[in-house]
Design a protein that fits this description.
Blueprint (H helix, E strand, L loop, with lengths): L3 E13 L3 H9 L3 E4 L2 E11 L7 E19 L4 E20 L4 E6 L6 H15 L5 E7 L3 H9 L3 E9 L11 H9 L5 E6 L8 H9 L4 H8 L6 H10 L3 E9 L2 E6 L6 E5 L4 H19 L5
Antiparallel strand pairs: 1-6, 1-7, 1-12, 2-3, 3-4, 4-5, 5-6, 8-9, 8-10, 10-11
Helix pairs in contact: 1-2, 3-5
């Protein structure tokens, strides 16, 4: 078994005419992009599921140099030397894409290829495949809800709540169903919600945090939380935490001003750094299914 590594969970946001089929095509028949002499592309593509009924896809993003060098031994001189190697891979980050969840599980490689760089390169590779022609792509983090609300519960006052959200596809959450329907009814591709009150916002977030931390069964949790969501900002915050946007909360913790972001509390799991593709797919599928069950996410 290889060394354990951290894999983050996110959702792929599709803009314009981008579809799950086009994302799959971009991974299967990839473009190549280059930044400052370093190239990136998808490699080692695999599918899971019956032909025409695929449930997921595996690949890696390779970060490589057109002409690299490795250190070798010159036996006749008993010395080291550099040998040229074309298309030398510096690092390759494995991932799985699960269209049914709009889900992406991807490896975080500190320093060499961190998660935020992976997200940008994934976006740029998908868009480059179609020359950015009426397509747009973003990877949005799924927040670890318990960690996120634990931090929220430590705020004595919330002075600002800001969320940027977009219509979910293909899932929706009962806790923010009305907000999702509002976006669709207005045909909005994105909405930015900001609430601000220097003396403190009248919010039910502390009650919502208590409900989440009580470890109630999913059905009871949803039934309990629904009447708490009488604020637009509260619903938008939970929608962003489920991976359909980004949000931040400003407030006071022990008298000090703090900022809490959904992106800083991202859901993740530990797995083999160089995984067997089918095992990674199975593990990621169960992780996304658990999120659906815990948060009551459903297909419309």
């Amino acid at each position: 078994m290889t060394k354990q590594a951290k894999f983050y969970l996110g959702r792929v946001r599709k803009r314009g005419e981008l579809t799950a089929e086009k994302i799959t095509e971009a991974i299967r028949e990839p473009a190549t992009i280059e930044y400052r002499g370093t190239r990136y592309s998808f490699i080692d593509f695999q599918t899971f599921g019956a032909p025409g009924q695929e449930t997921g896809f595996y690949a890696k993003i390779a970060k490589y140099r057109p002409l690299g060098a490795v250190e070798v031994v010159r036996e006749d001189q008993h010395a080291s030397a550099a040998a040229a190697v074309p298309y030398l891979i510096d690092v390759a980050s494995p991932f799985v894409y699960l269209p049914g969840f709009s889900g992406l599980a991807y490896r975080h490689i500190s320093n060499a290829f961190p998660s935020e760089q992976f997200e940008k390169v994934f976006k740029d590779l998908v868009e480059a495949k179609f020359q950015k022609f009426f397509v747009g792509c973003d990877v949005e983090p799924i927040a670890d809800l318990r960690t996120f609300v634990t931090r929220l519960s430590g705020l004595s006052v919330i002075t600002e709540l800001q969320a940027s959200i977009f219509p979910p596809n293909p899932l929706f959450g009962p806790c923010w169903k009305s907000l999702s329907e509002y976006l669709r009814k207005r045909k909005l591709t994105e909405a930015v919600i900001k609430e601000e009150a220097p003396q403190g916002i009248e919010t039910r977030l502390p009650d919502i945090a208590t409900a989440v931390l009580a470890e109630l069964p999913p059905a009871d949790l949803l039934e309990f939380m629904e009447p708490l969501l009488d604020g637009l900002g509260d619903a938008a915050l939970l929608m962003a935490a489920d991976g359909y946007g980004r949000a931040k909360v400003k407030g006071l913790e022990n008298g000090r001003p703090v900022i809490i972001r959904t992106s800083e509390n991202q859901k993740s799991f530990l797995f083999e750094g160089d995984p067997e593709p089918a095992r990674l797919f199975d593990h990621a599928f169960e992780a996304f299914k658990k999120i659906n069950d815990e948060r009551g996410l459903e297909h419309p």
